[in-house]
Amino acid sequence: MAAQLFFAALCSGALYALVALGLNLVYGTLRLLNIAHGDLAMIGAYVAFVAFSTFGLAPPVSMVLAAGLCAAMGWALYAGIFRRLFATPETAQRLEANSLILFYGVSVILQNVMALGFTSTARGYSYMGEVWRIGPVMASGNRLLMLGTALAICLGVLLVLRFHAFGWSLRAVIERREAAGIVGVNVDRVQGITIALGFAIAGVAGVLVSMTEQITPFMGFPLTIAAFVVIVLGGLGNIFAGIVAGFVLGFVETFGIALTSATYRSILIYGLFVTVLLLRPQGLFGKAIQVR
Q1: Does the residue 143 lie in any domain?
Q2: pLDDT at residue 245, as a whole number
Q3: Mean pLDDT of 43-53
Q4: Could you tell me if residue 230 is inside a domain?
Q5: Residue 136 belongs to what domain range?
Q6: Which is it for the CA torsion 120, 111, 201, 51, positive or negative?
Q7: How far is it between the farthest Cα atoms of the chain?
Q8: What is the total count of domains within the chain?
Q9: 3-class secondary structure for the chain?
Q10: What integer pLDDT is reported at residue 287 of this predicted model?
Q11: Which of 26, 45, 71, 257 has the most crowded Cβ, counting Cβ within 10 A?
Q12: Residue 159, domain CATH
């Protein structure tokens, strides 16, 4: 029983970490609160559904398609709107202050466009649903794929941040955007690539969700809330701590529900969120855990 709960917590934590990773990258680099982040995951989920049900394409292929589509959306937003607004400190500050409202509008548009195209009826498909026994744990193939993919992406981003020149530039922009530009970092390039990467990760997360749950045009809001909880737990802009916090939330939720009831899920999540805000507004890890 404990081993099964541990596996379930790992799966939930990996998904939360992945969803929050894209949001944290965008916030850390551009200081924009993307409340439409979960709706990008919803777009990825529908890409997987259409690709599987209409063309017979497996979710691993859909991940590439969803990542490309969401990355293109992110780059279009940046090139068409954000780049011009980031050109001067005054408009950049105004954009940061109003980003919540701007992305709320994007969220409403995406939800309603998808509702018009697919209706609000829940949809789903079956992929790798067979159950395997691994020691004391019963695990379905789609959950193993979800866990492996989420871990691989999170690890890949951390390795890029630590060892790649672009990762160093990204970390510099997260730390101090103006200072990074002064020392020669191409801030515009870093911001454009990062928003595309953050949106792409959200699309992949949506594909992973679609393998294990039914999807609707309004599924994104709970994912957005979970991502915000995770990045507040880890500290805004702290990439490594955010990934760790995703697993913390997964374990709190899974074991909390096992010890109480599924009806307490929201209480557990929001209770943890409020407690951390009150006791450690800088996040559970403060400045102790940083990407180096």
Answers
A1: yes
A2: 92
A3: 96
A4: yes
A5: 14-279
A6: positive
A7: 59
A8: 1
A9: CHHHHHHHHHHHHHHHHHHHHHHHHHHHHHCCCCCCHHHHHHHHHHHHHHHHHHHCCCHHHHHHHHHHHHHHHHHHHHHHHHHHHCCCHHHHHHHHHHHHHHHHHHHHHHHHHHHHHHCCCCECCCCCCCEEEECCEEEEHHHHHHHHHHHHHHHHHHHHHHHCHHHHHHHHHHHCHHHHHHCCCCHHHHHHHHHHHHHHHHHHHHHHHHCCCCECCCCHHHHHHHHHHHHHHHCCCCHHHHHHHHHHHHHHHHHHHHHCCHHHHHHHHHHHHHHHHHHCCCCCCCCCCCCC
A10: 55
A11: 45
A12: 1.10.3470
Environment class of residue 288 by beta-carbon count within 10 Å: exposed (0-12), middle (13-18) or buried (19+)?
Answer: exposed
Q: What is the pLDDT of residues 236-283, one digit of tens each?
A: 778 888 999 999 999 999 999 988 888 888 888 888 888 888 888 777
Mean pLDDT across 160-166: 93
| pTM for this prediction | 0.92
The two three-digit tokens of residue 5, written as one number: 């709960």
Q: Is residue 92, in this structure, part of any structural domain at all?
A: yes
